[in-house]
Amino acid sequence: MAITQNHLPSAGGSLLHPHPQVQADRMPANFQGFLRRHAADYRRKYSARLFSDYLDYEKLAGQRCIGTTGSWQWLAAFAPEGFFEIWGILPGVCSLQHMTEDHWQTLAKGVLNTQKFYRGLGRNGYNLGILFMEDGSDDLELRVVLIVRSNYAPWVRSDFTGFEVMLGDMATFTAPEITAKRARAFWQHSQV
């Protein structure tokens, strides 16, 4: 499952007001499958959770830690996949079913803090993603990722949305069969 947000057209948003998308599928998205495998392997090997151990490392290093909102721990991504990428990790919580009202409130506070930071950079578009597994496993703790995007302007529209940026899945509005049908005419006269 995933909750994503494409904030403004520069982040792939089609509407100008903030709104999330909720995805649920029996098959995990590319990034989810990758994280699930590695989190389970890590837990079997070290008897610990991957994100909790990562947070412990970052706290000792002290270079990328940003702060906390309630139980959420906020940090700059070690190997960012986008500009000014910020993670919020909720240690010990592996399912939305275990989220409390306080978890939701303090998650919102962290997202607002990130939005203010992005605004301080003179940026307004971003993608947000919360990827999680609701399959009964408890290896992968909840993590929210925010990545700033180009500024929204009337002539700017991104073709990458939360599907690509947060889930690692490609999304398209045109079926490949339609692409093939429309492109065939350009090959008809160039056959050798």
Describe this structure in words.
This protein starts with a strand and ends with a helix. Strand 4 and strand 5 (83-90) form a beta hairpin. It has one domain (2-188): HIT family, subunit A (2-Layer Sandwich). The longest helix is centred in the middle third of the chain and has 20 residues, at 101-120. The chain is globular and about 65 Å long. With 192 residues, the protein is of the alpha+beta class. The mean pLDDT is 82. Helices cover 35% and strands 21% of the residues. It has a 7-stranded antiparallel sheet with strand order 2-1-6-7-5-4-3, with helices on both faces. 31% of the residues are buried. It has 6 helices and 7 strands.
Shape: globular
What class do helices, strands and sheet pairing give?
Answer: alpha+beta
For the CA atoms, what is the radius of gyration?
19 Å
Largest sheet: number of strands, sense, barrel closure: 7 strands, antiparallel
- Estimated helix fraction: 25-40%
CATH top level label = Alpha Beta
How many structural domains can be distinguished in the coordinates? 1
Mean pLDDT over the full residue set: 82
Which residue ranges are poorly predicted, with pLDDT under 50 across at least 5 consecutive positions?
none
Separation of termini? 48 Å
CATH architecture: 2-Layer Sandwich
* Strands side by side in the biggest sheet: 2-1-6-7-5-4-3
- Total DSSP E strands: 7
Query: SSE order, as H and E?
Result: EEHHEEEHEEHHH
CATH topology value:
HIT family, subunit A
Number of helices: 6
Q: CATH homologous superfamily, by name?
A: HIT-like
- Sheet-strand content, in percent, reads 15-25%
